[in-house]
Design a protein that fits this description.
Length: about 280
Amino acid sequence: MSASSNESSILIRRIASLLILPVLGFALTALTVEAAELRVAAASDLSFVLPEIVAGFEKQSGAQVRLSFGSSGNFAAQLQNGAPFDVFMAADISYPRKLIEGGFADGGTLVTYGSGRIVVWVPKTSKLDFERQGLRTLADPQVSKIAIANPQHAPYGRAAVAALTHEKIYDALKRKLVLGENVSQAAQFVQSGNADAGIVALSLVLAPGMSDKGKYWVVPTDLYPALEQAAVVVKSSTQPKLARAFIEYLGSPDAKELLRRSGFAIDTPKPQSAAQ
């Protein structure tokens, strides 16, 4: 083979490698985007509506979202101990604020996305009349067990205790209380027949598969502190840009409509001060 042929062959291989590398780089980038996963720790009152919101975000972003549901207080403690989450959605804004103060969350990403409401939920066969006596109806002898979320770490549990205290019946009813690990478990106690009534989240009793299992009475909002719910990006997130995009998506018309239909009082998600 002549020298000129060798030079031509080498030149062709170099040109081919220069053409292949950008294509390979693009393919690897595409695979990285496709494989991006966002880990969200969310309050259990969101267990029915959040998967619907996530489906829209996944379709828009091409990312995958892994959801974990539980009590806000437990998640806050886990995040302080390095739990691997990217976004924290709490049922009480005080938890994200504490994480920000401790350096565990990005204060510039804190937003509120809605306010929750509590209801008294009873089986459909119940003859209790809450319209006449409100929460005092729970003192009826036919009510032996009342399910609430554990007020030590669950905002909906604290709201239930606050409402009962406001009506001056907490001490009388305390012996009837059955504590769920979170508000979703408290609702399950009623659904399974292990409690005669529950003070739970409106978002849960409106959900498909739950709405036909019982009936509810909405507790007036002036009986308990506002359940202002908020989301924040975790400082140790491995997907900070994607996490910010997810929080921004909570303000989209589709997300807000889903939250509204699930019983949340909705305003446009807005930045919040970390220290209030």
